[in-house]
Amino acid sequence: MKERNSRQSFLGENSEQILEYIKVAVVGLGGGGSHIVQQLAHLGVMNFVLFDGDTFEESNINRLIGSQAGDIKNKTSKTEIARRLVTSINPDVKVTLIPNDWHEGHMELRECDFIFTCVDSYGERNQLERFSRRFLLPMIDIGMDVYKSESGYFISGQVVRTLPNEPCMWCLNVLNEENVSTEAQKYGAAGGKPQVVWSNGLLASAAVGLFVELVTPWNSIEHGTICLEYDGNKNSLTKSNLMSLPKVSQKICDHYSPLDVGDSFFLN
Amino acid sequence: MTFAESEIKELSQLCTEVEVLTEGTLTFILLRGLQFQHKRELIKIDALICPQKHDGYPTRIFLDRKLEIDGTANWKVYQFLGSNWHSWSWNNIPKEQRLIQILADHLSPLMSQV
Amino acid sequence: MNTFLKIPTLLLETVKIDLSRPHPFAYERVGFLLCKQAVTSNSLGIFAYNYISIPDEEYVEDSTVGAMIGSKAMLRALGLAFNEGKRDVSIFHIHEHFGTGMPWFSRVDLKESIKFVPDFFNTAPNVPHGILVANEEHLAGQIWLSKEGAPQTINTITSVGIPYIISKQYEGA
C-alpha cells in the first residue's frame, strides 16, 4: 500500500486498487459537489468525470471548495476549478471535464462506475436516477435547503444512496409528483437559493462515507438504499424514518423494472 | 398501459415505425421517422409520445432534436430509454383523446411555424 | 475494443444459488444470462438483467465434460436472443468454478464455447454474445463481437449491489 494511503489501510487489502480503478462521476460542482470532489481526491480516487455547465460567480465563493478570489474576475468554469483542486491533491488523477449540461456528456456518464448527483433540481435528480438504473450505476444524491418560517430560519438536507434493484428516491418520497411537477411548472433557472458551506460539507462528507462503505469492505452494510436526514438546527444527521416504510425495509422498488437496462436504441 | 391496435395503425401512417416502450412507470410510443411540415420544410424526426402525466403535463411529446419555434419555447432536454430527447413548453393537452389527436395537438405550434 | 459487463448483485446471487445445486449426473450446472448493451464514449457495455436456469432433464450425460446441455436448452437460449423478433438480447453462457481469486476458463470450456457461442448470432446477429465463469469472489468472461470474430476477454465485470465487486482483468491475463 502506498504511504499516502497508509492511514486508511483499515478500508481493506484491495481498497487502494479499488479506489484507483473506479471511475466516479460528479454531476454538479457547486457547494456540494466541490466538497465531494476534494474528498474523493484525498481518498485516492484516480478517475473523475466531472459535469457542470456553470461559470464561477462571486456569490459562489461562500461555499465552492477550491475556488479562489481570482476566479471571480477570470470567470473560471466550475469544471476547471474542480480539475485544479483534484490535481493539486494528486497530479496523477485522470479527469474528464464536461463543462456542460450532463446530457451533453451522457456517453461518458454511461461508462462510469459510480455517480454523485449534486444538482439543485428535483427534475434533474429524477432523470439522473432513471439513468443510473438503466446503466446500473450506484448513485448518491445530496441536497440542502434553507427555509424561513415565522419562528426563524431552518436548515435541512438529505443524503440518499440508491442502488439498482433496490428502493429508489420515489420509494423514499424524496421525489414525488408534487415536488417534481411544481418545479417543472416554474420556468427558468432555480438559482439564488440559500446555501452555506458547513451544511454542504457535512452532507458531502456523509455522501463520501456512504460511497467508501459500498466500494470497500471495511463496513458491513445492511441496506444498499439508505436515506440520511440532516437537521441543521438540531445539528443531527440521522437515518430517515422513511427507511422503516415496508417497501423500503423489504428492499422492493416498484418504480423501476430490472429489465430496463442498456441502450434501447443500441441496434439503431 | 395498452393501446388499441387501431390507434397504433393510425400513427403508423405518419411514420416508418411505431413501437410501445416502457421505462419505469412511464410508457412511451416511439414514432420513428415521423414526417411533418415545419417552416415550409418537410422534416423527418423521431418522436416519443408520452400519454400520461409527466412533470406536471397531462401528456407530452419529445423529439430527437430541438426545432425552431418563434417566441418563447423553453426547450428542455430529457434522458429517456438511454437517449436524449427534447421537449418544449406546450401544456394542457389532455390524455382523454386518441393518440393521433394528442400528437396533432402537440405538434400544432411546430407545424404553424412559417 | 474495451468491454465491460455489469450485473446486479441480486441477480448474481440468484445465478450462484442455481449453479450450486447438485445435478443427478452432471458435475456442474450451467445457465444463460440475458443482457442488453450500450456503446459508451470509449467502450462497449453489457448489462445483465435476467437469468435462465437449465432444468435437470435438459442436460445430456457426457462424462468427458463437466456439463453438456441438449438441443432443447440451446433452442430456448436462441429463442431468448430472438426476443420476439427484436433480436436485441445478448446471451452469456455462465457456469461456476470453485475457489477464490480471479477465475478463468478451462481448456475444455474454451474449446466447447467456440462451437456454440457463434450459433447465438444466428438469431441475434448484431449484438455481442459470450461466456462467463464465476467463483466465490470474482467473474471473468469472453465476448464475441461477431459470429466470425475471435473472442476477446471482457476487461471488467462489476457486480453492482451488496457486496459491490469489481473483477478487473489485467493485460496478459
Search tags:
heterotrimer, A: 268 residues, alpha/beta, 9 helices, 8 strands, globular, C: 173 residues, Cytidine Deaminase, domain 2, 34% strand
Short structural description:
The complex is a heterotrimer of chains A (268), B (114) and C (173). Chain B has 114 residues and is α+β, with helices and mostly antiparallel strands.
Structure overview:
Chain A has 268 residues and is of the alpha/beta class. Chain A has 9 helices and 8 strands. In chain A, helix 2 packs parallel to helix 4 (78-89) and helix 2 (31-43) crosses helix 8. Chain A is globular. With 114 residues, chain B is α+β, with helices and mostly antiparallel strands. Chain B has one domain. Helix content of chain B is 18%, strand content 39%. Chain B has 2 helices and 6 strands; from the N terminus they run H-E-E-E-E-E-E-H. Chain B has helices spanning 5-12, 99-111; strands at 17-23, 26-38, 41-50, 60-63, 76-80, 83-87. In chain B, the strands form 2 sheets. Chain B has a 4-stranded antiparallel β-sheet. Chain B has a two-stranded antiparallel ribbon with strand order 5-6. The mean pLDDT of chain B is 91. Chain C has 3 helices and 9 strands, in the order βαββαβαβββββ. Chain C is of the alpha/beta class and 173 residues long. In chain C, helix 2 (71-82) crosses helix 3 (107-123). Chain C has a single domain (2-168), classed as Cytidine Deaminase, domain 2 (3-Layer(aba) Sandwich), CATH 3.40.140. Chain C has helices at 9-19, 71-82, 107-123, and strands at 2-8, 30-39, 43-53, 90-96, 129-134, 139-144, 152-153, 156-160, 165-168. The model of chain C has no long low-confidence stretch (mean pLDDT 93). Chains A and C meet through helix 5 of A and strand 1, strand 2 and strand 3 of C.
